[in-house]
Amino acid sequence: MNLGPTPNLRNAIRILLVDDNVVFRAGVRALLWKQEDLVVVGEVGTGEEAVSCAKATRPDVVLMDLAMPGKGGLWAMRQLTALGVRAKVIVLTALSQEWELLGALEAGARGFVEKGGPVEKLVRAIRTVTTGEPFLGVDGAGLAVLQRYLKETRSST
Questions:
Q1: Domain boundaries in the chain?
Q2: Does residue 152 have a pLDDT over 70?
Q3: Which pLDDT score is estimated for 2?
Q4: Which residue blocks in the chain are alpha helix, DSSP H?
């Protein structure tokens, strides 16, 4: 019985899934499992669990929901940065509201992917952020946020 590809764990991109919706996490995990270069090393449902799990598993990429019970995704991103966890965070978003995206960028997010988008876009985002490049997979709000963020960053230096 073929259970799918077996990733070369030495070269695989290690991923932590953070979303309070268990069914959503299971779906994302199943979709990523089909990619030979991606491996899910953990999945949790709160910001607090995300910080703990990221410290333990040292993922390359964290797929992070922002709206979760307890301390959410923005809090978790700030904690990961403060602790020196070098994982690249991709925000999984249902709504691309400018204030939310700007806050996530300020907290250290490297990418945004809409939850209802195609799997190919999520996979491309993961591979893109691991190269050090940002990935804005959301609509025009993402571009507006990036422009505003870059303008504020330049004016503060």
A1: 13-155
A2: no
A3: 37
A4: 22-33, 47-57, 73-82, 98-107, 119-130, 140-155
Q: SS3 for 18?
A: strand
Cα 17 to chain centroid, rounded: 8
Q: According to the CATH classification, is domain 13-155 in 3.60.21.10?
A: no
Task: Mark 8-38 as b/e (b = at least 16 C-beta within 10 Å).
Answer: eeeebbbbbbbbbeeeebeebeeebeebeeb
Q: Is the pLDDT of residue 148 over 90?
A: no
Statement: the pTM of the whole predicted model exceeds 0.90: no
Please determine, for residue 86, whether its predicted confidence score (pLDDT) is greater than 80.
yes
Give φ, ψ of 5 to 5 degrees. Answer: -70, 150
Q: Alpha-carbon distance 9 to 13, whole Å?
A: 8
Cα distances from 95 to residues 46, 50, 99, 110, 131, in angstroms, run 19, 21, 11, 17, 26
